[in-house]
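Continuing the batch. This is chain 6 of the set; chains 1 through 5 are on the previous pages. Same settings as before, nothing changed between runs. Recording input and output for traceability.
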Amino acid sequence: MFRRTRMMALVGALVLVMAVGCSSSSTKSTGQLTEVRQGSFATIVAAPENPDNPTTPEKVELGKLLFFDPRLSSSGVISCATCHNLGLAGTDRLPTSIGHGFQRTPRNAPTVLNAAFFQNQFWDGRAQGLEEQAKGPIQAEAEMNMPADMAVERIKSIKGYHEYFEKAFPGEEDPITFDNIVKAIAAFERTLITPNDALDRYLRGDKNALSPQAIRGMETFERIGCTSCHAGPALSSGAMMKFDWGSDPGKASWTNNPQDEKFFRVQTLRNVSLTGPYFHDGSVETLEEAVTIMARVQLGYELTDQERDDIVAFLRSLVGEMPQVEVPVLPAE
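Output for chain 6:
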C-alpha cells in the first residue's frame, strides 16, 4: 500500500515538473516582478488579481482598517487580525483558534500571508477566493458572530468610515454594503505577499542563499515526491488532497459526500517555520514531527534523521520579507 501511494505521488511530481518545465530555469514576467522557475520550484510574485474586484490604493486602505477593526464582530473584541496576526506570520500560533464567547474553534488558523494565491479557501475548501472567504469568519457563530446585515449597520453607524467607502467604491449610491466590506478586506489581503526568501534568491542566481544542508533538503524534498503537492510560487498546488489524520472529516463536513472524507487544502510552505502548530487540528508542535508524519502518511516514506533534518533546513529557508503593515488608527464613531 505504501509503495503504491509513494509511486502515485512520484508520478504526480513528474507530471507537475513537466508542466512547469524541467529545464534548468525559465522566467515569466508578472507586472513589475519576474517569476523564475527551476524544476518544481518558482519565485513568488505579485498575487493574481480578481477582475471582479480590481485592487486600488483606496480599497486597500479601507480593507486594512476593516481587517483590524474588532467592531466587525458582535462582541466588539474580535477582528480578522485576532486569528491572523501579522506579527505572528498571519496566524495566532494556537492549535485551534478562540472565537466568540471564548469558544474554541475546531481548526487551526491558516496563515493569511500569500493566501491570495489560492482559489480554495479554508482547510476544507468551502469558500472560493478571498472575497467569499472573508464572508465566513465575520458571520460564523463560533468566530466573529456578526450577521451580514448587522455588520453593515455597525459600519454605517461609524461616520468616519463613510468617506473611505466613497473613495474605495466611487460612483456607488450606497457603497457601504457587505459585499464591499469583504471586497476591501480581500484587496488588502492581496498585498500580504512575502517575497525574496532564500529560495527566491537562490532561484534568481544567488547560489549562496541556501546553505548546503538546505540544498540537500530541497533535493530530497523533490526526490521523494513532496513536490507532487508542494510546488510553484506558493509551494502548494492549492488542491484538495486526502490526508488521513485525526477525526476531522475535512471537505465532507460541508459536502456530506463520503468521497470527500479527509480531504483538505494543500497548505503553503512559505514561512512554514513561523506558522506552527501544524495540520488542520494543530496537533503537531514541531516542524520536524510534521515533516516525518507527512512523508510517512502521504508518501509511505520513512525519512532518515539526516533526510528529515535536511528537509527542515530547506523549509526554514522559506521565510520571506514580511509585509510592513502599520496598525491603523480606526475611524471614530
